[in-house]
Structure formats: C-alpha cells, structure tokens
Design goal:
- The chain has 375 residues and is α/β, with parallel strands linked by helices.
- The chain has helices at residues 27-39, 56-65, 83-96, 111-115, 123-142, 180-189, 200-215, 235-257, 262-267, 281-291, 303-308, 321-334, 346-371; strands at residues 4-8, 44-47, 71-76, 101-105, 147-150, 155-159, 173-176, 192-196, 222-227, 230-231, 295-296, 300-301, 316-319, 338-341.
- It has an eight-stranded parallel beta barrel with strand order 1-2-3-4-7-8-9-14, surrounded by six helices. A four-stranded mixed sheet has the order 10-13-12-11, sandwiched between helices. The protein has a two-stranded antiparallel ribbon with strand order 5-6.
- Strand 2 (44-47), helix 2 (56-65) and strand 3 (71-76) form a beta-alpha-beta unit.
- Helix 2 packs parallel to helix 3 and helix 6 (180-189) packs across helix 7 (200-215).
- The chain is globular and about 60 Å long.
Length: 375
C-alpha cells in the first residue's frame, strides 16, 4: 500500500491560534502556500469549504496555476451546484492541471451553516441527495453518450459532457462522515474514506465498518486520517507547545464569549455557530474521546478537541518527528494510506512536516513494504 500526504491551502493565513488578516482572498498567500507544499513533498493539498468562505474550486484553480506537481483535494458540498455542471467544472480543472484534481465530498453536519446557503433538508435527506448527486457526477464523467436520469432530487434528459477527467482512472472522490448514512454512501461511491484522528482502536473499528459496507458492493476504498501534528526537537518541548496552543485557544474562546454580535465573532475569525456544539457523528465521537482524557495511545492528544468541542479534525500527535512518524506507521498498519496533516502555524508547520516528518514516514513505510510478504 502506497502512502500519500495531504496538506492544506486556504485563501489567507489563519488557524485556531492565528487570527485572519489582510484580504479575504490573498493570491500571494495561496501561491506561496501551494508552492511550499509542493516543494515539501506533499502529494496533495486540501482546499476547504464553508458557507461563508471563498469558493474552493477557484482557490484550487489558482493554486494549480502556480504549481506543476501538487494535487488539489477540493472540498465540495453537493446540492448547491447541478451535478452535471460540477462534473464539467472539475473535469475542466483536471485538464488545466494535467490530472491533479481530487474531490472531497462534504454532505454537511451543521444544520445552521447549511441554512445559510438555503439548505433545509434533514440529515437523512441530505445523504440521499448526496448519493444521487455522486451517481450523476460519475455518469457525466464516464458516459460516452447522452443519458437520462430520474431520481428524487435530480431529473435530467440527454445529459452529456464533452470534457472527461484527464486520466483514464478518473477523478478520485474522497468522502467523510461516521454516521450509518454516511458510511453507506461512502461504501457505494468513495475512492477514499476520510476520518478524523481517533485512537488506534477507534480507527480500526471505523475502518472495519466501512470495509464491511463496501464489500457488499465489491469495492475497496483507501483510507485517510487527519491530524494536526505538534513536533519539536524533544518530546517535552512538543508537549509544552501543545499546552501553549490549548491555552491560546481557550483565551480566544473566552474573548469570543464576550463579543456582542455575529459580526464581531466573524472579525475574530470564528464563525457564529461555535456558540453551540455540533451534533454530527464525527464530532460526537471526538467529544466522547476527549471526555475520557487528553492523552490516548502513545501520543494522541485531544486538548484542542476539548477546547473547541470537536467541531473539526482537531486531534494531534505530539512528540519529536521520529516519534510522530512511528505513530503514523501504527495507523498505516491498520490500513491507512493517506495522512491529511495541517498545523496550527500553517506555513512553518508545513515546512517542518516536509523537512522532518514526511521523509521519515516514507522511509518507515518503504521498510514495512520490503518486509511484507505482499510487498
């Protein structure tokens, strides 16, 4: 099994500990971040999606234009663009970038955020729409003649695209979500199933659920896991940095609680929905994990998860580069082939990952494969 590293490119510099500054769309920052990831040895970079953020497809287009090798994993929410149009948009960028596009499908777990874009469907209805959306998307990419489609959410007559994906194997679809509805869609459509960083035990359990569901459809997806590694020269320094990060986030949360208006919340770089805890299954799993304590396995840390309520992929692996690499190898042995890693200091951490972490992991994986009877 090969190993893949995915970083993170955003429209401007910001993180849980860094307030956004400058223009909403900082073309220089996008270009610099994309080039840094390419030179640091990342295979792809994620471009995130949110109902209030700059459009992910266009950010990815700019990142692709300044790089030659870096793949782009473009977060995309089904239901707001016709699937036939989205298929042509992604296929067009795939040609412009010579086959560097992948799509990360996010059905959405925050009802309030979805309503900002006019989506009032229930969770069950959203996943049913996503399943149909992806079915149409793939047909638009693969059909050599016009096709009709009649479903609960989409009705098409004579759908056809002149532009297909650049590579014969097509455009990879990554998919996340830990609920039963999400796993059923992933089993049918995902090329890679993405999960947030959990314990080895929790990860193994979720992988098995997805494998069992996918096997019913004779499918064998890859698996991706997300962490925010905290690396320092010594283990004690790494844990000191983790404590400082948590302290900074808690200080910011206290400031947010004192702000009177949603616009003030936005100024602080945090969305208004942070006032309430998310209820999606992935967040509930992280909330339950953090409730059991801050440290799990050898170096999995949930301090940020507790501070933020598990709203996103907020777990970390803490230690030296070699120690974190060994932890990633343990996940690799469970069947994880893709690691999505982003830092609290986006540029500096990406550089550290490329210089110190990624080469060690690739070396460990190469040794693992060399000693495996299956290669």
């Amino acid at each position: 099994m090969s190993v893949e590293f995915i970083g993170y490119v955003s429209a401007r510099e910001q993180s849980e500990t860094i307030s956004p500054s400058g223009p909403e769309v900082d073309t220089g920052y996008i270009a610099a971040t994309a080039l840094l990831h390419e030179r640091a040895g990342f295979d792809r970079a994620l471009v995130a999606f949110h109902s209030s953020s700059p459009e992910s497809l266009l950010i990815a287009q700019h990142a692709a234009s300044v790089t030659t090798q870096l793949g782009l994993l473009i977060a995309h929410r089904p239901g707001f663009t016709a699937p036939t149009l989205a298929a042509r948009q992604f296929a067009t960028l795939d040609h412009l970038s010579k086959g560097r596009v992948a799509v990360h499908v996010i059905t959405g777990g925050n009802d309030q955020e979805l309503k900002a874009d006019g989506d009032y469907l229930t969770k069950t209805e959203r996943y049913a729409r996503t399943a149909e959306y992806l079915e149409v998307l793939r047909r638009e990419w693969t059909s050599n003649k016009p096709f009709d489609h009649s479903g609960a959410h989409y009705h098409l007559e004579g759908a056809h695209s002149d532009v297909k994906p650049y590579r014969q194997e097509g455009i990879p679809i990554y998919f996340g979500g830990a609920s039963d509805e999400a796993i059923e869609v992933a089993a049918r459509q995902a090329d890679a199933y993405a999960l947030w960083g959990e314990t080895l035990e929790g990860t193994k359990e979720l992988i098995q659920r997805v494998r069992n569901a996918a096997a019913l459809h004779h499918r064998f997806p890859r698996f991706s896991i997300s962490f925010s590694p905290i690396i320092a020269e010594t283990e004690s320094q790494a844990w000191e940095r983790a404590a400082a990060i948590e302290e900074e986030i808690l200080k910011r949360q206290k400031q947010i609680d004192q702000l009177p208006t949603p616009s003030a919340l936005d100024t602080a770089g945090v969305s208004p929905e942070l006032k309430g805890l998310p209820t999606n299954e992935g967040s509930r799993r992280l909330q339950a994990l953090s409730a059991r304590g801050d440290r799990h396995d050898s170096r999995l840390w949930t301090g940020v998860t507790r501070a933020t309520g598990g709203r996103w992929n907020s777990t970390s692996l803490v230690g030296t580069a070699s120690q974190v690499a060994e932890s990633l190898l343990a996940y690799y042995r469970l069947g994880i082939g893709t690691f999505l890693i982003r830092g609290f200091d986006p540029l500096r951490d990406a550089q550290t990952y490329g210089h110190d972490l990624i080469p060690i992991v690739r070396e460990l994986v190469a040794k693992e494969k060399a000693h495996s009877p299956h290669g």
